[in-house]
Amino acid sequence: MSQPENETVSAPQPPAPAAPAAPVVIKSGGRGVGLFALVLAVLGLGASGFLFVQGQNLLKRQEMQFDQKISQAALGESQNAALLADNSRRLQSSESDIKQLQSDMQAQQAEAAAGSRALQELLKTRSDWVVDEAEAALNLAGQQLMIADNVPAAVAVLEGLDARLARFEQPQLLPLKQAVSSDLAKLKQRPFTDTANAALRLSRLEAAVGGLPLLADSSLRPPQAAAPAAAAPNAPWWRNAWNRTVSGLKGMVEIRHLNSTDALLMSPEQAFYVRENLRLHLLSARVALMQRQNDIYQNDLAASENAVRQYFDATTPAAQSWLREIAQLKTLQPGAGNVGDSLAASLKAVADYRQLRQGESVTQPEIGAASEAAASQPAAPAQTPPVSAPATPAASVPAAPAPAQASAVHRGIES
After folding, report:
1. Is the dihedral of CA 261, 265, 269, 272 positive or negative?
2. How many Cβ atoms are within 10 Å of 300's Cβ, its own excluded?
3. Coiled-coil region(s) at which residues (predicted)?
4. What CA–CA distance (Å, rounded) separates 379 from 382?
5. What is the mean pLDDT of the chain?
6. What is the pLDDT of residues 276-309, one digit of tens each?
């Protein structure tokens, strides 16, 4: 076997101590190996490029999918917002419809109440109208008694009511007639105080306080000159002169008896407060008269009378007239009668009549409706339960407020 040309044979060398192993280079057949390595490198590069392109495509697809998901999410949020806005509009529309229904229901309830009142007025009998008029008259009389203690006006109202009730012969009005007659007799026997006239008289006395002369002013004024003695035509001249001299001396001296000297020592400021204190007593007496407080009224009048007798000149005509007026006012007794039970019997009779009529209006329509339903229904076996007729509108008429109102007026008068 022949050796290649490129190979050479070297002479044997002695072994070198601890030398590193050198790579073995095979120089024969190197072109095929290089070609194979080049092919492998090209394949690897192609595979790397293919993988790179596939990775880029995968990233692009994932990015597109992500963008699509974001777009879908944004679209879903916009759709949700539109749906929420639509629901809000529907809710507002529903609320407006509910409010409209509520207003319509209230209007229907008001119309139903008006219809019930109209039906109640139509179902009233002549006795009911008379009782309504009696209640109005009793309320008017009660107001006159409570506000102004005007017994004559209340008596006139009850007399007119008694005369009107006497023209009706219905037996259900008999308790009301008896009650009105009883209250009328009580009012005629009740003491009466003309409060308005007494208050006017007190106001005049209060205005006249400024014209009353003080005792100190009366003591300081000069004595009045005595009238000259008449001269006798047949008497001698010296006797006439003597009479004139004696009458002149009598007019120079005036003697008065005083129980207290305090009134003579008052200053102008104290005199002003004395008059104002007297006016306050009269004002308090007038207020007590309007409030029907007899004790306070009598005490203020007594204090006013004592002040006039102590600090003012009671011998003057103005003071005497003032004291006579005070004495007449002291005879009045405001609040002597009790107006709480003056109309109690009449108001109770009205309330009893209303309650009786209410019971009748509830019972009679139910019985009539049941009889009509039984007559219109065909014959049924004995074990069939009877059909209950519905309540007619007349049974649901609110007739209860009338007795309640009468009892409220009664309680107000009693208080």
Report:
1. positive
2. 22
3. 84-111
4. 9
5. 74
6. 999 999 999 999 888 888 889 999 999 999 988 8
pLDDT tops 70 at residue 273: yes
Identity at 168, one-letter amino acid code: F
Instruction: List the one residue out of 316, 304, 308, 399 whose CA is nearest residue 358.
Output: 399
- Supply 386's token pair: 């009877």
Arithmetic mean of pLDDT, 148-172: 86
Per DSSP, the three-state class of 292 is coil
Question: Tokens for 393?
Answer: 């509108």
- Decide: pTM greater than 0.70: no
pLDDT for 4: 42
Please state which of the ranges 281-285, 328-332, 352-356, 373-377 shows the lowest mean pLDDT.
Answer: 373-377
In three-state secondary structure terms, 139 is helix
Q: What percent of the chain has pLDDT over 70?
A: 67
Q: Which residues contact 324 (CB under 8 A, 6 or more apart)?
A: none
**Which residue carries 């203690």 as its tokens?**
149
The count of other CB atoms within 10 Å of the CB of residue 407 is 16
**At 238, which amino acid appears?**
W
Cα-based distances in Å from 38 to 31, 51, 247: 10, 20, 182
Q: Give 4: exposed, middle or buried? Use CB within 10 Å, 0-12, 13-18, 19+.
A: exposed
CA–CA separation, 205 vs 198, rounded Å?
A: 11
Question: Which ranges of 252-343 would DSSP assign to H, the alpha helix?
Answer: 268-290, 294-311, 317-330
Cα–Cα distance list, 173 to 15, 126, 400 (Å): 162, 11, 19
Residue 192 has pLDDT above 80, yes or no: no
Alpha-carbon gap, residue 104 to 102, rounded angstroms: 5
CB-CB neighbours of 399 under 10 Å = 21
Paired strand residues for 167: none
Rounded-to-integer distance, Cα 151 and Cα 154, Å? 5
The residue whose two tokens read 């008999």 is: 174
In 3D space, the residue among 337, 338, 314 whose CA is nearest the CA of residue 327 turns out to be: 314
- Give per-residue pLDDT as tens, 4-30: 444 444 444 555 555 555 554 445 456
The residues, any chain, with a CB within 8 Å of residue 208's CB and separated by 6 or more, are 318, 322
